[in-house]
Amino acid sequence: MTALDWVLVVAIVVLATLVVAGMVLGARALRQLHKVRADDHGQGQAVDDALAKVEDANAKVEDANAKVDDANAKAASVRAEAAAAKAEAAAARAEARRVLETAHGEADTILEHAHRQAEADAEQVRAAARRQGEREVALLNTTAKEQAAEVERRTARIDERERLHADEVERLVERERRLATMDADLASREAALAERETALAGVEESKRRELERIAGLTAEAARTELVEGIEAQAKREAAILVRDIESEAKTTADTRARHIVVDAIQRIASEQTSESVVSVLHLPSDEMKGRIIGREGRNIRAFESVTGVNLIIDDTPEAVLLSCFDPVRREVGRLTLEKLVLDGRIHPHRIEEVYDSARNEVDVLCDRAAEEALVDVGITNLHPELSKLLGRLRYRTSYGQNVLKHLVETAHIAGIMAAELGLDVPTMKRAAFLHDIGKALTHEVEGSHALIGADLARKYGESEDVVHAIEAHHNEVQPQTIEAVLTQAADACSGGRPGARRESLEAYVKRLERIEEIASTKAGVEKVFAMQAGREIRVMVRPDDIDDIGAAVLARDVAKQIEEELTYPGQIRVTVVRESRVTELAR
């Protein structure tokens, strides 16, 4: 039962209680009335009051009955509402069962779909795991192949070392055989000398007797003459022996020196050098060539003016050429163009910004190359300024040979020869490694690179042995120490091996440098670039110092001086660029 039903029941009980109480009061009043009538018939007024009370009680009873009827009616309506509520509840339960059944069906459908999706995901995961496993297996196979190749290379190197050791053993055996032959020869010579001495003694004795008989000399006089003759003969034989010993020592020394040099060269595996004056940059598409050229050639002119590198754009698909005799300048130009192509924004102002960034990047690469060279040679306590100058030699060549690699190779050769001779290996390596340090400043300081390098080494605290080896390696100063002589020998071994140098490239570079030097010495010149493999020279002048007429005169003077001083094939075009640039800031 609901709370409303309970309230109605309680109300009915209360009304019934009131009715019963009223009936009890009415009965009690009637009994009093009969008693009063029996006692006192004269009291009518009381009877009337009692009757009035009875009537009031009856009225109350009627009201109570009316209320009970109302309560019964309300209870009936409540029961009807309760029945309606029960019907609605039954309908709601039926609807809930239907919704529950629908939810169960949808849940089954969702679960089935989830199972299928899970199976598909599991299949994808298994396929991905299978592919990952295949990739790992392929990677392991590749690694195994690389390791096998490395093992084969190491085996080949070990075989080569064993062959070299066998050759060395053969040389030692041959040397021992020659020494044994020389010992036998010396023994035979000693025996011959002994026999000769015996024969001479007999001859001298017979001569002494004959002299005594013929000349009638005294024994003292004969003894004196004999001593003088023997002394002269001994001196002659001693001179012959000394000459033979000196000749043998020279032969042995030459053979030993050749062995040391050959062994040092064989133990240094250096690359054959072949410098180029052209770099190739691959482009993502041929459309990039038009963006590099720019409107009416604006971008390519700005690029060549800023970097000093000649940009060649021909029919080669997806590639451009950068030509410059200066490898540092060419590398900076290549990095600049590569960054511009990757960025996509190519215009004169952007070219200048990227050029500065590329130049800083090349400086970092030079420093890293110097550090790697120092680690390779085994030098740690080098002054930072000398290390920075060494990094600049990464892009410097001498007769086509990279100077920094030449220094590393020379240091290794000198170290091996010093170890063979029992000298100080670190000092010898240091002297050989720094012997061409002056080439980093040959464009900035006048004089021989050997003397410039010696001044630099002395300035930054190198020892006198190292300084002397540097200044004497080209005989500007006569060598006074064994370190200087070995530095010369190691330098000659590194530069004289097959494929190390090419005279034609060095002469070409020197001609281009001379062309730029001729133009840069003129008044008012700001920048000079040799382009088109030396067939064109571009001279940028300061517009405040040189006017248009002065630019024409400058071009004619440069061309005339080039004709008088240089020998070259074809003709050289001299282009003088006079550009005015005004910059203001909008605040």
UniProtKB/TrEMBL annotation:
EC? Answer: 3.1.-.-
Which regions form coiled coils?
Answer: 47-102
Q: Which cellular component terms (GO) are annotated to the entry?
A: plasma membrane
User: Does Transmembrane helix appear among the keywords?
Assistant: yes
* Name of the protein in its database record: Ribonuclease Y
Pfam families membership: HD, KH_1, RNase_Y_N
The UniProt entry's GO biological process terms, in alphabetical order, are: mRNA catabolic process
Q: Which residues cross the membrane?
A: 6-27
Domain of life (superkingdom): Bacteria
Chief localization class?
membrane
Which InterPro entries does UniProt cross-reference here?
HD/PDEase_dom, HD_domain, HDIG_dom, KH_dom, KH_dom_type_1, KH_dom_type_1_sf, Ribonuclease_Y, RNase_Y_N
Q: Which source organism? A: Paractinoplanes abujensis
| PANTHER family registered for this protein in UniProt | RIBONUCLEASE Y
Top-level EC class: hydrolase
Bilayer topology reads: Single-pass membrane protein
**Gene Ontology MF, one:** RNA binding
Residue span, HD domain = 403-496
Q: Where is the protein found, in the record's own terms?
A: Cell membrane
Keyword list, A-Z: Cell membrane, Coiled coil, Endonuclease, Hydrolase, Membrane, Nuclease, RNA-binding, Transmembrane, Transmembrane helix
